[in-house]
């Protein structure tokens, strides 16, 4: 079960964080990011004008634009479930490459012109990365991205088509999330992003 501030919910912790953490914080010797499953939210500033931020949650001059989980549901193929945790997942988003991070892939595509980077197919597997541009993307994230997280044991709930009892609704940017005490499920997206 997730631990939280007195009277707060996962939604509160992501939408009204006490602190936003930088890349430098995450990679510090005593990194505050726990090696546990959970939910994380990315806040950004200095996004290109074509990125819709109207209605997004704002903390300081950072807009909440991305929410993810550190452990997903076991695949239907029968393979082992992901062993990702908050620490590994957040670090991967911050210094990995586009082939292993939807966040980096999305940001890189949005920032292609601004950063002078291009998505390329590389290697025998044909994975997509920004090659040398990954370093520029990491530098941009150092200045303009912040993250907050919440430890949750069960992060891989099924998607629901209707609101289950006991859930409350909270709008995060263009997504609607349904939250229960320590669980998260993406319910629907009400924009075409």
Q: Identify the strand order in the major beta sheet.
A: 2-3-1-6
Number of helices: 6
Q: Indicate the low-confidence ranges by residue numbers.
A: 1-7, 156-193
Query: Rough shape?
Result: globular
The main sheet comes to: 4 strands, antiparallel
SSE diagram, text form:
Blueprint: H1 10-15, H2 23-26, E1 38-44, E2 58-59, E3 62-69, H3 86-95, H4 102-110, H5 112-115, E4 120-122, E5 127-129, H6 133-144, E6 145-151, E7 168-172, E8 175-180, E9 183-189
Antiparallel strand pairs: 1-3, 1-6, 2-3, 4-5, 7-8, 8-9
Descriptive notes:
The protein is α+β, with helices and mostly antiparallel strands. It has one domain (10-189). It has 6 helices and 9 strands. It has helices at residues 10-15, 23-26, 86-95, 102-110, 112-115, 133-144; strands at 38-44, 58-59, 62-69, 120-122, 127-129, 145-151, 168-172, 175-180, 183-189. The chain has a 4-stranded antiparallel β-sheet with strand order 2-3-1-6. Strands 7-8-9 form a 3-stranded antiparallel β-sheet. A two-stranded antiparallel sheet has the order 4-5. β2 and β3 form a beta hairpin. The longest helix is centred in the C-terminal third of the chain and has 12 residues, at 133-144. The protein is globular. Mean pLDDT is 76; it is low at 1-7 and 156-193.
């Amino acid at each position: 079960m997730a631990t939280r501030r007195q009277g707060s919910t996962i939604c509160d912790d992501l939408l009204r964080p006490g602190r936003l953490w930088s890349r430098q914080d995450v990679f510090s010797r005593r990194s505050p990011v726990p090696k546990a499953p959970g939910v994380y939210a990315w806040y950004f500033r200095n996004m290109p004008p074509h990125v819709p931020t109207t209605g997004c949650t704002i903390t300081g001059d950072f807009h909440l634009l991305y929410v993810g989980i550190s452990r997903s549901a076991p695949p239907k193929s029968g393979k082992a479930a992901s062993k990702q945790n908050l620490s590994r997942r957040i670090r991967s988003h911050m210094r990995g490459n586009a082939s292993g991070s939807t966040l980096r892939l999305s940001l890189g595509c949005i920032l292609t012109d601004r950063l002078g980077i291009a998505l390329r197919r590389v290697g025998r597997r044909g994975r997509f990365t920004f090659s040398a541009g990954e370093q520029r993307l990491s530098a941009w994230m150092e200045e303009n991205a912040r993250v907050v997280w919440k430890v949750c044991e069960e992060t891989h709930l099924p998607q629901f088509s209707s609101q289950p009892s006991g859930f409350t609704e909270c709008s995060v940017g263009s997504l609607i999330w349904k939250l229960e005490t320590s669980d998260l499920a993406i319910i629907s997206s009400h924009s075409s992003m």
